[in-house]
Amino acid sequence: MEIKQSESGNKGVFFIEVDGQREGEMTYSIAGTGRIIIDHTEVSDKLRGKNAGKQLVAAAVEHARKNKLKILPLCPFARAVFERTREYDDVADL
Questions:
Q1: Could you give all domains of the chain from N- to C-terminal order, each with its CATH number?
Q2: In sequence order, which ranges of 16-75 are alpha helices (DSSP H)?
Q3: What is the average pLDDT across 59-65?
């Protein structure tokens, strides 16, 4: 499953397309120079059960590590993933 990313101004999104349609996305805001805030995660029924949401969070973590950022997961789904995944503690801003 390929995850793409787009940023415009202080907003960004990680997303998954299937047959040209966006079927999953996780939106975030850029908060200063060292933090992003995940505010929403949504996955269509087409991707349910395929860990698409967790893969979107993993893409954000990879992005944060590459860019030396912290992530504040305000989205309930993303927050739950962070709380259960100790490997993300290095970028978590809980």
A1: 4-88 (3.40.630.30)
A2: 52-66
A3: 97
